[in-house]
Amino acid sequence: MLLEVRDLHVEFHTRDGVAKAVDGVSYGVDAGETLAVLGESGSGKSVTAQAVMGILDTPPARITGGEVLFRGRDLLKLKEDERRRVRGAEMAMIFQDALSSLNPVLTVGDQLAEMFTVHRGTSRKEARARAVELMDRVRIPAARERAGQYPHQFSGGMRQRIMIAMALALEPALIIADEPTTALDVTVQAQVMELLAELRRELRMGLILITHDLGVVADVADRIAVMYAGRTVESAPVHDVYKSPAHPYTRGLLASVPRLDLKGRELYAVEGLPPNLTHVPPGCAFHPRCPSARDVCRTDAPPLYEVSPTRGSACHFWRECLNG
Ligand SMILES: Nc1ncnc2c1ncn2[C@@H]1O[C@H](COP(=O)(O)OP(=O)(O)OP(=O)(O)O)[C@@H](O)[C@H]1O
Ligand code: SF4
Ligand SMILES: [Mg+2]
Predict the structure, then answer these.
(1) Which of 65, 81, 234, 254 could lock onto 226 through a cystine, CB 3.0 to 4.6 A?
(2) From the CB of 292, is ligand 2 less than 6 Å away?
């Protein structure tokens, strides 16, 4: 495995008490693979990603347990300067909001060139050429001319391409994209997603794609990790999940995807709301919303059971779920 997150725990101390934002997340991604991370708002997807990248503000956050193994090394044990070296050169992150991540007073070409002059000691002239190459690579038309423009002169989709170019600059082994297309129009979303998938294949990077959009998952992901209330509730190859989910929450999520062939039929969304993370229900955190809940679910928290060597489910009754 290129990256393996094992039983990660992150807390926030709030006025209401301790919020267990990440309460036992485990997932992994290999080189050349895409892992899609799914789950409702507040389930801990971004906090987990920030802990992996080492950009979580501590405080207010506290990492209270687990491991983040990257190429076999636990990143949580590295000193800040070692950590900084890994970040950028070996792993990079793409955020939802490109405009606030780019420097408004530097031309796009200069920002890209800086990646090479600062991190690689490349000459300015060479760095400029590399910047234009990168803009070509993320398919920005007329890259040479546009390198002299500022971020606000680009459309949302083009800005997101620039973010992707920044992330690719140092040829990292892993890219984490946190809802990279949420702020874009639907057609532009598809283009940016295709580009990411293509580059991932070309460069044999690992990609962690955090998304709400189950539609894209089937097309681009190899594996899925489903999160609920700060935990991984199902982790599996994408085809297995689509064929038959091994967790009732995954089943509910899948049933919520609008499908063209089912037009007009009522969509089943998971009923109810996610729990308050300072007061997570005992037992299985999903039990108040679970159509299959039984007495044991209200008292005993399910571990991530091994469904197969490549698949896990945190449901006591995963066998029944699997059999539909
Ligand atoms: N700075 C903070 N202070 C206190 N709590 C926080 C802070 N940042 C995050 N949290 C808590 O961590 C939980 C998980 O947040 P996170 O951003 O990871 O959710 P998410 O799954 O990425 O959701 P979304 O889909 O909306 O982006 C949130 O419910 C929130 O309560
Ligand atoms: S453990 Fe029980 S409540 Fe939790 S998902 Fe499984 S059946 Fe539902
Ligand atoms: Mg998020």
Answers:
(1) 234
(2) yes
Specify the length of the chain in residues: 324
Whether 98 shows a pLDDT value over 50: the answer reads: yes
Indicate whether residue 116 lines ligand 2 (CB < 6 A). no
What is the tens place of the pLDDT at every residue in 195-218? 888 888 888 999 999 987 777 788
- Candidate of 287, 318, 323 to mutate for ligand 2, largest count of ligand atoms within 8 Å of Cβ: 287
- Confidence band of 259 (pLDDT split at 50, 70, 90): low
Residue with tokens 């991984």: 232
Counting ligand 2 atoms within 8 A of each CB, the residue from 234, 300, 316 with the most, and so the one to mutate, is 316
Name the residue at shortest CA distance from atom 5 of ligand 2: 315
Q: Burial-class residue 81 by CB neighbours within 10 Å (0-12, 13-18, 19+).
A: exposed
Count CB atoms within 10 A of the CB of residue 32.
Answer: 15
For 221, the token pair is: 């992901």
Per the prediction, the chain carries an average pLDDT of 90
Q: Whose CA is nearest to atom 7 of ligand 1?
A: 12
Q: How far apart are CA 282 and CA 168, in angstroms?
A: 43
Record the tokens describing residue 313, joined without a space.
Answer: 């489910």
Q: Which amino acid, residue 29?
A: V
Ligand 1 atom nearest to 47, measured from its CA: 18
Q: What is the DSSP string of 49-110?
A: HHHHHT---TTTEEEEEEEEEETTEEGGGS-HHHHHHHHHHTEEEE-S-HHHHS-TTS-HHH
DSSP string, 191-207: HHHHHHHHHHHHHT-EE
3 state SS of 318: helix
- CA-nearest of 202, 112, 115 to 159 is 112
The structure's pTM equals 0.91
Could you tell me if 54 and 68 are in contact, meaning their C-beta atoms sit under 8 angstroms apart? no
* Secondary structure class of 179 (helix, strand, coil): coil
User: Which of the listed residues 25, 46, 48 should we mutate to test ligand 1's pocket, taking the one with most ligand atoms within 8 A of CB?
Assistant: 46
Among the bound ligands, the one closest to the CA of 227: 1
pLDDT at 257: 61
